[in-house]
Amino acid sequence: MLLTAILAGAAADIVWEVWARTVTPLLVGGPLQPAALVRSVFGLESWALAELIHAVVGVVFYPLGYLYVARPVARVVTPFLPWWVVGLGFGLGLWVFALYVMAHLIAGLPAFLGFVPLAWASCVGHMIFGLVTAVVVRWREAR
C-alpha cells in the first residue's frame, strides 16, 4: 500500500503543480504558492525547505490519509458515493485543512484567504489532487 500511496501522491502532486504554476496564473494572475503558507505556519525562512515540506506531505502523507482515513470513513458513512466523488471530497477536505486550519487557525490569515480568486483556484487544485489520488489508487487496486 505504501507504493500505491507514493505513486498516487506523485501523480497527484505533478498535476497539482501544473495547475498551481501554469493554469492558475492564467486564471487569476498569479500562481498558487503553498510554500508561502508553509513558511507562515512554521515560521520558516527557507523557501526551498517549505517547498520540500509541501512536496513530502503531498506525495506521502496526503495519499496515506486518503487510503487509511478518507476512503474507509466514506465506506462507512456514505457507502453509496462512487469512488470519484470520494476523491473529490477528499480534495475538498484538504483545501479546508490548508486554508482554514493551517492558514487561518494556525497562521492567523483570514479564513480561506477571504475567498479571493486565488483561494478558489486552490480549491479546484485540491479537488483535482484528490481525484488524481483516487484514480491512481483505483488503477493500482484493479491490477
TrEMBL record:
Chain segments annotated as transmembrane: 47-69, 81-106, 112-137
Keywords, sorted A to Z: Membrane, Transmembrane, Transmembrane helix
Protein name: DUF1440 domain-containing protein
